[in-house]
Amino acid sequence: MIDPDGYRPNVGIILMRDDGSVFWARRISRDGWQFPQGGMNTDETPIEAMYRELAEETGLQSHHVEVLGATPGWLRYRLPARSVRSHTKPVCIGQKQVWFLLQLKTDDSAVRLDATDSPEFDAFRWVDFWYPGENVVHFKREVYVRALQLLSPMARSLAGESKVPAHVGEQLVRRLDERRREQGGPRRSRQDRKPA
């Protein structure tokens, strides 16, 4: 399913422990690390897609987590030109995502990266809350920083200011804005109205 602007509806998952660390997973056969994410089926709401993707990519079920919050609308990123399959119709130029912040309510033993026949990830680790904003592949960076920034108040209410410091997120946003100005682009990733 691709919208009229060429974006595929998608959900992103920030899975957090009580200490403020977040789940960071390595993609199979690649050196890239990212949060769990995946496309929405036409008959799914964002929360239904989130629970399905959570189960497929981490093996975790709804009783293993608590939803702490979600971004208020779609966050978009464009794919690099080399990744756009212009020979397919409709052409997908990027992803539009609703991001969820989840609290892990169990220990790591419940995580199963091989929960499906075609796993997405082959390793995971727990990293500081803001780490993914600087370490994800460049074309997803703005969306990651924006999602982390939007969800950080909920994360901070659980883990505390020392584990999810507001000033770190503000610094990341400033650096992104500076890069965008240098490149002559808009200040931040596009955010649309709340999805249905």
From TrEMBL:
<protein>
    <recommendedName>
        <fullName>RNA pyrophosphohydrolase</fullName>
        <ecNumber>3.6.1.-</ecNumber>
    </recommendedName>
</protein>
<dbReference type="InterPro" id="IPR022927">
    <property type="entry name" value="RppH"/>
</dbReference>
<feature type="compositionally biased region" description="Basic residues">
    <location>
        <begin position="187"/>
        <end position="196"/>
    </location>
</feature>
<feature type="region of interest" description="Disordered">
    <location>
        <begin position="175"/>
        <end position="196"/>
    </location>
</feature>
<dbReference type="Pfam" id="PF00293">
    <property type="entry name" value="NUDIX"/>
</dbReference>
<feature type="domain" description="Nudix hydrolase">
    <location>
        <begin position="6"/>
        <end position="149"/>
    </location>
</feature>
<dbReference type="InterPro" id="IPR020084">
    <property type="entry name" value="NUDIX_hydrolase_CS"/>
</dbReference>
<dbReference type="InterPro" id="IPR000086">
    <property type="entry name" value="NUDIX_hydrolase_dom"/>
</dbReference>
<feature type="short sequence motif" description="Nudix box">
    <location>
        <begin position="38"/>
        <end position="59"/>
    </location>
</feature>
<comment type="similarity">
    <text>Belongs to the Nudix hydrolase family. RppH subfamily.</text>
</comment>
<keyword id="KW-0378">Hydrolase</keyword>
<comment type="function">
    <text>Accelerates the degradation of transcripts by removing pyrophosphate from the 5'-end of triphosphorylated RNA, leading to a more labile monophosphorylated state that can stimulate subsequent ribonuclease cleavage.</text>
</comment>
<dbReference type="GO" id="GO:0034353">
    <property type="term" value="F:mRNA 5'-diphosphatase activity"/>
</dbReference>
<feature type="compositionally biased region" description="Basic and acidic residues">
    <location>
        <begin position="175"/>
        <end position="185"/>
    </location>
</feature>
<dbReference type="InterPro" id="IPR015797">
    <property type="entry name" value="NUDIX_hydrolase-like_dom_sf"/>
</dbReference>
